[in-house]
Amino acid sequence: MAVELMKGNVALAEAAIRAGVEAYFGYPITPQTELLEHMAKRMPELGRAFVQAESEVAAINMVYGAACAGARTMTSSSSPGISLMQEGFSYIAGSEVPAVIVDVMRGGPGLGNIQPSQADYFQVTRSAGHGDYHPIVLAPASVQEAIDLMGLAFDLADQYRHLVFVVADGLIGQMMEPAEMPPMQPLRQERPDWALTGAEGREVNTIASLELHAEGLEAVNLRLQAKLETIRAAEQRSTEILTEDANLIVVGYGTAGRIAQTAVLQARQQGLKVGLLRPISLWPFPEERLSELSDRVQAFLVVEMNAGQMVDDVRLASGGQVPVRFYGRMGGMVPVPEEILHEIVTVYEKLITSGV
Amino acid sequence: MATATMVEEQVVYQRPEALNDIPTHYCPGCTHGIAHRLIAEVLDELGVRERTIGVSPVGCAAFAYQYFNTDGAEAAHGRAPAMATGIKRVLPNRVVFTYQGDGDLAAIGTAEIIHAAMRGEKITTIFINNAIYGMTGGQMAPTTLAHQRTTSSPTGRDVALTGFPIRMSELLAQLPGAVYVVRRSLHNVKEIMKAKQAIRVAFEAQINGLGFAMVELLSTCPTGWKLTPPEAMEWLEQEMLPYYPLGDYKVADDVAPLLKKRR
Q1: Do A58 and B89 touch (CB under 8 A)?
Q2: Helix, strand or coil for residue A162?
């Protein structure tokens, strides 16, 4: 496959198609609409299912249905639409069926605006629906990474029979970058044995998140928690640069992480020993790596396009060993490298005692 | 010495294969059981039990997926038509039905049922209209009649404040995607037989790929209505039938031949 110039939203859609998505259900919302539009064109021409739903609520429940039928299925939306889908997320998690959700985050709260944001961090990692669970959450920082993570998202969803989010922001969704698509995977021919396909020659299958007896529902939750513990141990992902000798490590994901990388390189030019840790999985948070790094750095600086939602995770993973500072922009404002650099220098001068 | 003659016994009535032999949680005198049986008989007669997927509602029939001997799912409140859409779109050769009450279909799930019908989803919906929220203990439903007392309309439904009961069959019949929309009742044997015929047509419409089909079934809720089962049957006939006339609200041209087939 050749490298092509691709828009993030289109790349996410085409990557899902290459990964064998059999059914897409969505509702238009800026800044993710190109994803839906690409699906509207491509899915029917491939003989796959596409439905523009009457609402995000309906879209996620269509995903729930298709997932119960054993299909690779997905929806995409942006922040206000993700709020509306919370009901469906919870039923999908409770029923343990696989589904992939793309959230191209925008500024909030409320209707907010359509500019890039990371303000859904809490929503996707902590409260994507009622009940005790976390979805798996993957955060790309480029169009190429968005493509790569879409394929991974479907594999993880199937492997764990769980909800997997790919969270981008309006910037990654809207920008064009050179990227390479993976080859087309054939559609899965066999349905999983748990799927609802009609009980031909077998006992019936039922899928529900309903369990009226407390003992029974606790058993369901214990099984779910055991699965999440497996995921937590096996699926922490992050990337890093210049952390080997760093005194200060900047922690940022997605677009904020990418911009922070430029600021880290600029800081190095000034002789500051600064590195970058970019979480790729937001849940499970890469706590093992962050914990290791906290043994040998003097401070962390968290950079996000929100009010500091990942700060909690960084503090938890670093166990209070070192100070955790925060710099962020909100409401759709995207930080430029210079303002992050300014923050790096300020924190460095204040907190780093040696090695300048 | 008399000669014993062995008469071979002939089974004239038995539990349909599509209905599981387990106790249900339905109240005595409630017509959900009749509706279940009619659906199961139709699935058996059409020979589609092994390719049918049922979608249960939230409400009294939340456990319907345990009672039907078919593959089944339990939807979120009101979302059964959306869930059924997801299933049917990836398994177009299967038979997919939703079973929904009036709170589920006519209140919280109004958007989902209207748009499933609008899209002409090839699914069958069985709509139980008993003019009340049964599962939560007898609150006012969108279908609750004017002046009807419920726990959330304790002095009787005041239409000036709460609006008039919604007639879903009449409403959905307006949509071109809906090919068969009828209202039947379960209050006496004659109407039950007619209800079964309608359920059969509604499934055949789906199997023939014609579009969305719905059978609304007027049903009793003796517990919620605070009546004995016989009184509930009478109340349905006297109070519900005038506001919810039985009849065929939509029979598309393609569906009409299905009505003429003699069984």
Answers
A1: no
A2: coil
At B245, is the secondary structure helix, strand, or coil? Answer: coil
**Residue A205 confidence (pLDDT):** 98
Q: Which of A290, A302, A300 is nearest to A326 (CA)?
A: A302
What does the pLDDT average to over A46-58? 98
Q: Which residues contact B7 (CB under 8 A, 6 or more apart)?
A: none
Q: Residue A104's beta-bridge partner residues?
A: A168
Query: Of A42-56, A157-171, A293-307, B1-15, where does mean pLDDT reach its minimum?
Result: B1-15
pLDDT for B165: 98
Interchain proximity B70–A69, CB inside 8 Å:
no
Is the pLDDT score of B251 beyond 80?
yes
User: Could you give the angle at the alpha carbon of A190 between the alpha carbons of A185 and A192, nearest 5°?
Assistant: 110
Residue of A nearest to B19 (CA): A204
Sheet of A206-207, strands arranged across: A206-207, B71-74, B52-56, B95-101, B124-129, B212-218, B178-185, B247-251
B118, A98 contact by CB (below 8 A):
no
Q: Where in chain A is the domain with CATH 3.40.50.970?
A: 3-234
* Nearest by Cα to A328 from A119, A113, A103: A119
CATH hierarchy code of domain A3-234: 3.40.50.970
Cross-chain residue pair A65–B71, CB shorter than 8 Å = no
Q: Would you tell me the crossing angle of helices A143-160 and A214-234 to the nearest 10 degrees? A: 140
DSSP A248: E
- Which residue among A61, A69, A73 places its CB closest to the CB of B79? A61
Q: For residue A3, what are the β-bridge partners?
A: A180
Please tell me which of the candidates A54, A64, A66 has its beta carbon nearest to residue B115.
Answer: A54
What is the full DSSP assignment across A276-341?
A: EEEESEEES--HHHHHHHHTT-SEEEEEESSSSSTHHHHHHHHTTSS-EEEEE--TT----HHHHH
Position B5 confidence tier, pLDDT thresholds 50, 70, 90 = confident
- Nearest Cβ partner for B115 among A58, A70, A207: A58
Neighbours of A339 (CB within 10 A): 15
Strands B52-56 vs B95-101: parallel, antiparallel or unpaired: parallel
String of DSSP letters for B34-66: HHHHHHHHHHHHHT-GGGEEEEE-SSGGGGHHH
What is the SS3 assignment for B196-231?
A: HHHHHHHHHHHHCCCCEEEEEEECCCHHHHCCCHHH
Fold of B32-149+162-260: Rossmann fold (3.40.50)
Among all chains, which residue has been given the structure tokens 């939750």? A221
The architecture (CATH level 2) of A239-351 comes to 3-Layer(aba) Sandwich (3.40)
> Quick check: B43 pLDDT over 90?
yes
Mean pLDDT of chain B: 96
Closest partner residue to A23 (CB to CB) among B69, B90, B114 is: B90
Q: How far apart are alpha carbons B102 and B108 in whole angstroms?
A: 9
pLDDT of residue A356: 44
CB contact under 8 A, A196 and B74: no
Interface residues of A toward B, Cβ cutoff 8 Å, are: 22-23, 25, 49, 51, 53-55, 57-59, 61-71, 73, 87-88, 91, 95, 196-201, 204-210
Contact B86 A65 (CB under 8 A): yes
ipTM: 0.96
Name the segment(s) of chain A with CATH classification 3.40.50.920: 239-351
Question: Quick one: pLDDT band at residue A100, thresholds 50, 70, 90?
Answer: very high
